UniProtKB/TrEMBL annotation:
Keyword terms: Cytoplasm, Repressor, Transcription
Species per Swiss-Prot/TrEMBL record: Congregibacter brevis
Coiled coil: none
Annotated InterPro entries: ACT-like_dom_sf (IPR045865), ACT_dom (IPR002912), GcvR (IPR016867), UPF0237/GcvR_regulator (IPR050990)
Protein's recorded name: Glycine cleavage system transcriptional repressor
PANTHER family: UPF0237 PROTEIN MJ1558
Amino acid sequence: MTTRVLISFFCDDRPGVIEQLSALISDHEGNWLDSQLSRLGGRFAGVLQAQIPQAQHEPLNSALNDLSGVGITASLTDAGDASEASLGTQRLTLMGPDRPGIVRELTRALRSAGFNVRSMKTAVETAPMSGEPLFRAEASIELHEGSRLDELEWKLDAMAETMTLEIDLIPD
């Protein structure tokens, strides 16, 4: 019997990290499925989903723990069951002057209107004309039974006005 697992890791950014992780998965009769990997600052971090035989769960977990000897901090957990069925997705984009609290206010609005973040990517860039820090976010959000799109739109409009942001919500 096989099981799906999640492996999260971080380490100093250097060539060969993904090769080391993929070799461990292969050595434990596993299959690399999905992943989100990124360089953040001078570190490399990610989370991946793999399918492995149930009998390889503990040996793979042990092998991942041994990676600390080469500077990779990794952990293994069961992937769990998929959550309730989504009624659809919306793509949210956000851009404006960087300031503390943007992600907190955005996720607060999403949660209170009954939406779930499926994926989100954020970055701080330099604005072309002014050179000021510019915050960008793009997210895929799921609609579920009880999600209130009108409430979310109202909250995002208020947030955009208060924080001088441009926020767009586009059906997928």
